[in-house]
Amino acid sequence: MSSIPIDELRKIKKILEEKIENNSDESNDSDSSYKNNSDYKIKYNSCESKYRYLQLELANKEIEISELKEKLEILNKYQLLIKNTNFLFDRLDNAFKVLHERINKIEDNSFIKINTFSILANIENLCIKTKDKYQEYINNSVYPLFLDDQIIFKNAITIIYNNKIKEFNNIENIRDITIMDKSRKIVGFFLNIKLNII
Questions:
Q1: CA max distance for the chain
Q2: Do 102 and 123 meet the contact criterion of CB atoms below 8 Å apart?
């Protein structure tokens, strides 16, 4: 059975309906002839069966269209899921890189600046805000897009996400170690001054 576009099927249906009407008009003009009446019945039955076939074909096409619309909706949802997931991990990687660079800059600088501790406090604040922001993002813009049968995919994304969040916890630990190290250096610096004065 060949696949005929729906518009084409509708045109065929209209033509057949017109032919049935025309045959009906012709039969009124030639009622006296038995042969014409017999021909009309054969033509009518043929047209009627073609019409039923086309109705069935049209119904099949409408079912096909509905199925394709459902598949398209699922595909669009899947594409949005991939896009949002990529965005999430790209932003997390970028935030991790920026925070790590800030910590490294402080660690590399042996001289303690006045704003060192405020920078370290800012890093902690950024870590917390970043984790909160992307927890909300994954809950609102990623998880709702998963279909019920995508549990393995959802679990995989969750595992990767949790590993990324652990990176931020590591930054917070590095920050704490840096604070302790800088505090120790400050205490040592003042002790050294005091000992030199004595």
A1: 139
A2: yes
126 CB neighbour count, 10 Å cutoff? 16
Using CA atoms, how far apart are residues 183 and 188, in angstroms rounded to an integer? 8
DSSP 8-state symbol, 138: I
- What is the C-alpha to C-alpha distance for residues 60 and 54, in angstroms, rounded to an integer? 10
pLDDT, tens digit, for every residue of 99-140?
878 777 765 555 455 566 666 667 777 878 888 999 999 999
The DSSP output letter for 111 is S
Q: How many residues would you count in the chain? A: 198
CA dihedral 112, 113, 118, 120 (to 10 degrees): -40
Name the token pair of 19: 């032919």
Domain ranges of the chain: 6-197
DSSP state at residue 57: H
Cβ 27 vs Cβ 36: under 8 Å: yes
> Do the Cβ atoms of 23 and 43 come closer than 8 Å?
yes
**Is 150 in a helix, a strand, or coil?**
coil
125-180 tens-digit pLDDT: 787 888 899 999 999 999 999 988 889 999 999 999 999 888 877 776 665 656 55
Contacts of 85 (CB under 8 A, 6+ apart): 142, 157
Report the alpha-carbon distance of residue 163 to residue 41 in Å, rounded: 77
How crowded is residue 161: how many other Cβ atoms within 10 Å of its Cβ?
A: 19
